[in-house]
Write a structure and sequence with these properties.
Layout: H1 14-21, H2 25-51, H3 65-74, E1 80-82, H4 88-93, H5 98-105, H6 138-152, E2 159-164, H7 171-183, E3 187-193, E4 196-197, E5 200-201, H8 213-218, E6 222-226, H9 230-245, E7 251-256, H10 277-283, H11 286-296, H12 302-323
Parallel strand pairs: 1-2, 2-3, 3-7, 6-7
Antiparallel strand pairs: 4-5
Helix pairs in contact: 2-3, 2-11, 2-12, 3-9, 5-12, 6-7
Bound molecules: thiamine diphosphate.
Length: about 350
């Protein structure tokens, strides 16, 4: 990938980044860049497979990689992720296997969900990434319930609720923020504002200046962050996570991004997006912005960036090859994993 000269530059000197991310910033950003390229490679390959009829459905997160990768790298094992629609890369960065995710996308017999969920709705229990629900907003109050449980048990961890701009109009948004603020819970409300709820632009979603300003009236801090700038996302998350761990209560973070692909493989945005949308989105491509900055700062050279891109493509290709061709879940699996074994000995 060659850097796009029209990309909006990240506004930092190396000293700025060192003060925000610490002395190991070059390694952190190189790692972050690689994960972002992996997310991009995955989206590109899976959209192709969907068009070829090899997977049934796909929802890309192209344009939101900085948010997902920074979240995966800034959170700790004890933290919990309640995704909205596009946070699958968070699970991978936290350690979920790419091959297992590919099995999920093919909805086959090795999919931990045994093909019961739509593609892109994985559960990654081992990294505390909760199964996504397509029902917009429901995960917000679930994340708050989990945070309440953590507090009651004096258990470590922060619960992160992700949701799109559209989900801020759901009942769960109100119930979740209100309950969390009243009970002072360790939860972060992360609004992935990609400026569209399918065909509904943010101007039709709210009269508020930003989504983050809503937090104040619930009684918690709210931050509006450039979600296409991985340094900004990372620094903001570090601050909010640290305060939540200290017991200082919930916060809301709005990450402003540009949706660079259709809502899903079932959508045609040319019917509703303005003609200049893709140019605006491309100038805020989070991968291109980071790559341009890393090159200018001497952390990455063009051949290094290309090599990373090739490695990521190969990793995705080999995960797809390993998974594709596995048979569908056996019919008997329909009734497996549904009930826990009854250990009480009683007859019901
Ligand atoms: C309760 C509910 N209402 C409507 C829908 C249909 N629907 C699916 S995705 C979507 C838009 C979501 O937009 P947003 O929350 O901004 O997330 P994004 O898709 O932009 O990531 C809608 C309305 C749904 N799934 N659930």
């Amino acid at each position: 990938m060659s850097p796009d000269p029209s990309v909006v530059p990240l506004p930092y000197t190396a000293d700025d980044v060192a003060s925000l991310l610490g002395p190991d910033w070059p390694e952190l950003l190189r790692t972050g860049y690689r994960w972002m390229r992996l997310g991009r490679a995955l989206d590109s390959r899976m959209q192709g497979l969907q068009r070829q009829g090899r997977v049934g459905f796909y929802g890309a997160a192209t344009g939101q990689e900085a948010v997902n990768v920074a979240t995966g790298l800034a959170t700790l094992r004890d933290d919990w992720i309640f995704p909205g629609l596009r946070e699958q890369l968070v699970a991978l960065v936290r350690g979920h296997s790419l091959v297992t995710y590919a099995h999920h996308l093919f909805a086959d017999d090795r999919d931990p969900g045994r093909g019961r969920n739509m593609p892109c709705h994985p559960t990654a229990r081992e990294v505390q990434y909760v199964s996504m629900s397509s029902v917009i907003g429901t995960q917000i109050s679930q994340a708050v319930g989990l945070a309440y449980g953590l507090r009651q048990r004096a258990a470590p961890g922060v619960s992160l609720a992700f949701f799109g701009d559209g989900a801020t109009s759901s009942n769960d948004f109100h119930a979740g923020l209100n309950f969390a603020a009243v009970w002072h819970l360790p939860v972060l409300f992360c609004c992935a504002n990609n400026q569209w709820a399918i065909s509904v632009p943010t101007s039709r979603q709210t009269g508020a200046r930003t989504f983050a300003t809503k937090a104040a009236e619930y009684g918690m801090p709210g931050w509006s962050v450039d979600g296409t700038d991985i340094v900004a996302v990372w620094a903001a998350l570090r601050g909010s996570l640290a305060r939540a761990r200290e017991g200082r209560g919930p916060e809301m973070l709005e990450f402003v991004t540009y949706r660079m692909t259709p809502h899903s493989s079932s959508d045609d945005p040319s019917r509703y997006q303005p003609p200049d949308w893709s140019a605006r989105a491309l100038s805020h491509d989070p991968v291109a912005r980071l790559e341009a900055w890393l090159r200018t700062s001497g952390v990455l050279d063009p051949s290094g960036a290309e090599a990373i891109g090739r490695e990521c493509d190969a990793e995705v290709r080999s995960a797809v090859e390993a998974a594709e061709g596995t048979g569908p879940p056996l019919p008997a699996s329909l009734t497996e994993d549904v009930y826990a074994p009854d250990r009480s000995g009683s007859r019901r």
